[in-house]
Amino acid sequence: MASKILSRRDLDFLLYEWLDVEALTARERFAEHSRDTFDAFLDVSAEIAERDFAPHNRRSDLEEPTFDGVRVRMNPEVAAALKVFNDTGLLSATMDSSVGGLQMPHVVARACFAWFQAANIATSSYSLLTAGNANLLLTHGTAEQIDRFVRPMLDGRFTGTMCLSEPQAGSSLSDVLTRATPAGDGSYRVDGSKMWISGGDHELSETIVHLVLARAAGAPAGVKGLSLFIVPKHHVGADGTVGERNGVALSGLNHKMGYRGTTNAVLSFDDATGYLVGEEGKGLAYMFQMMNEARIGVGAGAVALGYTGYLHALDYARERAQGRPVAGKDPSAPPVPIVRHPDVRRMLLSSKTYVEGGLALILYAAKLLDEPSDENDLLLDVLTPIVKAWPSQWCRLANDHAIQIHGGYGYTREYPVEQFYRDNRLNSIHEGTDGIQGLDLLGRKMVMRGGAGLQLLIGRILTTAVAAPPELGRPVIALCDRLATTTRKLWAGGDPTAALANSTAYLEATGHLVIAWLWLSQLAAADGREGAFYEGKRLAARYFITHELPRVVPLLDLLDSGDTLLADLDDAHLG
Questions:
Q1: 371 is catalytic
Q2: Looking at the predicted structure, is the pLDDT value of residue 240 above 90?
Q3: Global confidence as pTM
Q4: How many Cα atoms sit within 13 Å of 522 on the Cβ side?
Q5: What's the CA gap between 286 and 250, in Å, rounded?
Q6: Which of 431, 471, 508, 548 is catalytic?
């Protein structure tokens, strides 16, 4: 029976027929790999996801972690699943062999991890955060810091977090108040409070390595005064041995709508020992590495949740018999599976375009990391806010459709689709809200280096669109021209307030255009191939271009109008 977690057939198509990941093995870094090793890791990922992650997904939602004032108590199946995951070596899959990594291409590792995110987003998030923490320290930490903190994380002994937000400072990091004072021995004393810390406290590992943004003594106000510190939950010796508690205390757990199996902590740092990463004043620049990795991970999680919701809905629609065709005249005729009703097909087909298009976006971005160049690095910068935000909106709509297709059953806790929706709702918030991604895309990524990122993106899209069937390529070409013109027009006056007044609309328009491009690219990969799978790809591409892409037109119309209502609005007008 086909899995309702992810589609292995779609992954194989995207990896091997569309992105040709086998060609990456010609690169020295990936020379030890082959399709056989890629397939082996995909197979084991699917197996562990089905066996060790999916079964406790519901329990972790119903029995969320609790804090008794001393320790966090949680579902023991989480620790068991993470141990199995760590034993595979997938936590360090993309890392250098010098630290025990597998030097696997990012694109394959991302496909593997999607299985765990789709099976159990809450449990998988501990590994996502730990890997991001380790990657940051491998780039910016000292050899001693890597030995003391990173190697134990990669061995599965430690976990990691990122500590940015504070009770008074969510996304506005310039308002961070946590302070760090030199202790005279090379370490610092860290004091302050951090809020919304995913994985911030638990008993899943020997200790937790917190990466904390704080303001060193004498540092200036604003983000330029922020530095980054390693602040472990326990003191850690030079040889990685865990000692007494550090000055890091759990003040309480936040109780979320979804992701309930992931602890979300309020942490108090009281004279806690911390270790500076890199140089003072460069903390946010370092943290952006983990933030951007997390943003891609959030987008991937949104795709995974949308995808599993779609597969559950498709299976239900094929089995659930209700109603008769509109042309049916015999009331005694047996009911038909609801998949035969046009509006159910509409929701299924639109969901298919969202989740398969979103998965293509995630894997395309990951492959850019595997083929570094000035162009690919720039394109990834431009795509990152779209990778984070587009799936968080549209793959969540696939979850909404899944509930609708289930009807009244979908709105009950007896069916998993309501949990998928609740879990996915968080992805538009954490690691930078959709609004922040819109500001980043229009305010920075599309205008940096004289608009080189915009030109590069449009150039890539046009190359694909020109080669596509004219009836599908023409609308994409026309919208490329409009996007370029609109972007120039928005910035023509040099007024950022006016230019960014509708940046979220710009993000949505650009995201849909990017997904249309990737559907045209998939269409080319399916060309000439026979069978229901390939015909499904062709129909999905046609549907997205003809039914979804037109959404971009009114968004660009709004942007072209120069409307500044949202910037000019006074809050008194809201009642």
A1: no
A2: no
A3: 0.96
A4: 33
A5: 25
A6: 431
